[in-house]
Design goal:
Elements: H1 2-16, H2 46-49, H3 68-78, H4 91-94, H5 133-141, H6 151-159, H7 162-171, H8 181-193, H9 200-205, H10 214-225, E1 242-244, H11 264-267, E2 275-277, H12 299-310, H13 317-327
Helix pairs in contact: 3-7, 3-8, 5-8, 10-13, 12-13
Length: about 350
């Protein structure tokens, strides 16, 4: 541009010096490459999106109302390592609410899934052995590779604290402040039921087409085309069913990992071998590592392998990138006061 401007100035000077008509320039201006118009963002008819639903504002049970006192007590319990047998492991140690409700470290043989939105899932645990989060947290705490704390010892540990005795009286007036596995589970359940992460995706489902970028809409189109919604649908884009790992093609056991039979360990039915709960995709871009065994750190690679082994599709890098871009629209945060350490 500067060169063209200088040529223009010199031509003007030559003309001003009375040399007659200016000599036509024989220099050809460089051609400007025309870029192809950007592809229009895809649009979706209601039928395509009918398999999804926005995140609910509240996940509450009639027998466990989410009172402020109960939620506050549940949060305190969640962060308290004294609930474990060794007095050194809290719920937050594996499901860190300051790190998107998950953990990069793995205490047991299975990956610790995010606690965010977990209370809304149809079942709890990778093998779907639990139903209600209130019950599952108690049973989970007793597992040897988790907190190793049996019911009786758990109740004793909580009841030994005068602060907890007072807090339970406020949170459970109808139960006269009784400290039992039921009330402990309800307090923890009340807290986890508040850990919801609304996102731009929910605004999009509610009718705001501008909530997603054109690239994210293209990724959604790729997500649908790859039939990802076969398993990942509903309010939580997953967490609504169990599925065999390796439907279209056998899933390889990761190097250095023992074979995990999944739900078979609960039911002892052959049909449940290698069957696991389908995880939510909300905040999946922030909750590496992936899979039940935590064997995969790359979300892109996980998308590619899932397409190959679950739906029998080979995705090129461009389509994988598009899908991962869409998954970014599922990112959300729970209320700040709930994820700040007490």
């Amino acid at each position: 541009m500067r060169k063209l401007a200088i040529v223009g100035i010199l031509a003007a000077v030559a003309c001003d010096k009375g040399g007659g008509a200016p000599t036509p320039s024989t220099t050809t201006a460089p051609a400007v490459a025309s870029s192809a118009p950007a592809a229009p963002a895809p649009t979706f008819d209601p039928g395509q999106l009918a398999v999804f639903a926005p995140l609910p504002e509240k996940i509450e049970r009639p027998d466990n109302l989410l009172t402020p006192e109960k939620v506050a007590l549940g949060k305190t319990l969640y962060f308290d390592p004294k609930l474990s047998k060794g007095k050194d492991v809290s719920c937050n140690a594996c499901h860190d609410v300051t790190k998107n409700g998950a953990s990069e470290t793995q205490r047991g043989r299975r990956n610790a899934p995010t606690i965010f939105n977990a209370a809304g899932g149809f079942a709890q645990g990778w093998d779907a052995r639990g139903t209600l989060v209130e019950d599952f947290v108690i049973a989970h705490a007793a597992e040897p590779d988790v907190m190793s704390q049996g019911d009786k010892a758990l109740v004793q540990a909580v009841a030994a604290s005068p602060a907890y005795v007072a807090a339970f009286k406020k949170a459970f007036p109808d139960e006269k402040g009784a400290i039992t596995t039921d009330t402990i589970g309800k307090a923890l359940g009340a807290y986890t039921r508040k850990l919801l992460t609304p996102s731009r995706w929910d605004k999009f489902l509610a009718g705001d087409a501008s909530a997603l970028t054109d690239a994210e809409k293209a990724g959604l189109a790729a997500f649908l085309d790859a039939n990802c919604m076969t398993c990942h649908a509903g309010k939580y884009i997953g967490a609504a069913q169990t599925q065999k790992l390796g439907v279209a093609k056998p899933w390889p056991v990761a190097p250095g990992r023992a074979e995990d039979l999944g739900r078979f360990e609960v039911t002892k039915q052959d049909v449940d071998r290698h069957v696991f709960k389908v995880p939510t995709l909300r905040n999946v871009t922030k909750t590496s590592p992936y899979l039940h065994d935590g064997s995969m750190s790359s979300l892109e690679e996980n998308v590619k392998l899932m397409a190959r082994h679950q739906v029998g599709k080979e995705l090129d890098d461009a389509r994988v990138k598009a899908i991962v871009t869409f998954l970014g629209a599922l990112e959300g945060e729970p209320p700040k006061d709930l994820v700040t350490k007490p």
